[in-house]
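Section 5: illustrative case.
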């Protein structure tokens, strides 16, 4: 391997390690789930407290399940059911969106 290639891969490895440390540290913080309806905060939940909660709005309902430090929608009456099909969220910045109900669930 040439000297320039060795330097490049060393720098790349250092950047990857730093990125891993930063992201893993942010995931160990005490995160909350924020539910917003039509841009307004509706309710906040502790990501570390297992529970089911029905979010009732004028547009319909969604059932939020928080279990094992992950949040997901397990039931909804929206026509497309895309919010139910989205994967569970647990890391800061991840979202679940239900457009028919104008609802956004965000990990903070």
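Designed sequence:
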């Amino acid at each position: 391997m040439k000297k320039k290639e060795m330097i490049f891969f060393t720098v790349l490895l250092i950047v990857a390690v730093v990125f891993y440390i930063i992201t893993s540290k942010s995931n160990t913080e005490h995160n909350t789930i924020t539910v917003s309806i039509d841009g307004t905060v509706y309710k906040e939940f502790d990501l570390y407290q297992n529970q089911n909660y029905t979010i009732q709005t004028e547009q319909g309902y969604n059932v939020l399940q928080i279990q094992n430090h992950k949040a997901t929608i397990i039931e909804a009456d929206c026509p497309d059911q895309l919010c139910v099909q989205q994967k569970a969220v647990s890391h800061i910045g991840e979202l679940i969106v239900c457009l028919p109900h104008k609802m956004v669930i965000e990990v903070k």
